[in-house]
TrEMBL record:
Any one GO CC term of the record: cytoplasm
Highest taxon, organism lineage: Bacteria
EC number: 2.1.1.198
Keywords annotated in UniProt: Cytoplasm, Methyltransferase, rRNA processing, S-adenosyl-L-methionine, Transferase
Role, per record: Catalyzes the 2'-O-methylation of the ribose of cytidine 1402 (C1402) in 16S rRNA.
Pfam families the UniProt entry points to: TP_methylase
Places the protein is found: Cytoplasm
Family of the protein in this entry: Belongs to the methyltransferase superfamily. RsmI family.
Domain Tetrapyrrole methylase: 13-212
Organism of this sequence: candidate division TA06 bacterium DG_24
Name of the protein described by the UniProt record: Ribosomal RNA small subunit methyltransferase I
Main subcellular location: cytoplasm
Length: 253
């Protein structure tokens, strides 16, 4: 038994999903693990402490973030190999998705450590199912490159992707990203979801040009997910025809 009266957890790395905004979205199982883990490795210890305090839990918190992952990950692995349990949490949502959790998870797998997922909230899935766009097949791209040239090249690569696209973006880059998407991908249907599960939650739907125009005058705040319609059949045919024409010209030369 732990000092909080919980059953001790077997040594393992527990991937614990936590709320992306509304604290009521935490699962009973997640709370049980967070209360019983020997160590809670948190991307943002302040946010995790608020969650634990809200539910009357008090555990040993250790900062694990992008800047210290190369130092902390080996130590956490050794902690587990020595017989302790470690719960990994991000600053919100499911660890390992567009955050440093993947680095620790991969290292733990390589050392033969048991990985125990504790499912729960994920901003990408919440935005996708509320977007009104097809959910049966989708591609998650995480964050696009911040540099304009690299971002443009990545969008060019995605131009013929037929599946619905799920992309994270920072508020200060949203306007320019939507404009660039409309230029490269065409004026397809999209949705912008921000502040999901929070007081000022907003899900705005429309064409890329409509969304770009809206956010030119309306400042975007909070965490943002962009959902994009996949490439339409006509667009795919046009791109393939263009590639065929280029190849034909090259052959003739």
């Amino acid at each position: 038994m732990t000092d909080s009266g919980q059953e001790r957890l077997p040594p393992a790395l527990y991937i614990v999903s936590t709320p992306i905004g509304n604290l009521k979205d935490v699962t009973f199982r997640a709370l049980d693990v967070l209360r019983a883990a020997d160590v809670v490795a948190a991307e943002d210890t302040r946010r995790t402490r608020i969650l634990l305090a809200h539910y009357g839990a008090s555990r040993r918190l250790l900062s694990y973030r992008d800047r210290n992952k190369e130092v902390r990950a080996p130590k956490l692995v050794q902690t587990i190999l020595a017989g302790s349990s470690v719960a990994l949490v991000s600053d919100g949502g499911t660890p390992g998705i567009s955050d440093p959790g993947y680095y620790l998870i991969r290292m733990a797998v390589q050392r033969g450590i048991d990985i125990v997922p504790i499912p729960g909230p994920t901003a990408a899935i919440a935005a996708l199912v509320a977007s009104g766009l097809p959910c049966d097949r989708f591609a998650f791209e995480g964050f696009l490159p911040s540099r304009p040239g690299r971002k443009r090249r990545r969008l060019e690569e995605l131009r013929t992707e037929p599946r619905t696209l799920v992309i994270y973006e920072a508020p200060h880059r949203l306007k320019s990203t939507l404009v660039l998407m409309a230029q490269i991908l065409g004026d397809r249907s999209a949705a912008v979801a921000r502040e999901l599960t929070k007081v000022f939650e907003e899900i705005r739907r429309g064409s890329l040009s409509e969304l770009a125009a809206y956010y030119q005058t309306e400042p975007a705040r909070g965490e943002i997910v962009i959902i994009l319609e996949g490439a339409r059949q006509q667009a795919l045919s046009d791109v393939r025809q263009h590639k065929g024409d280029v190849a034909s010209c090259s052959h003739e030369e």
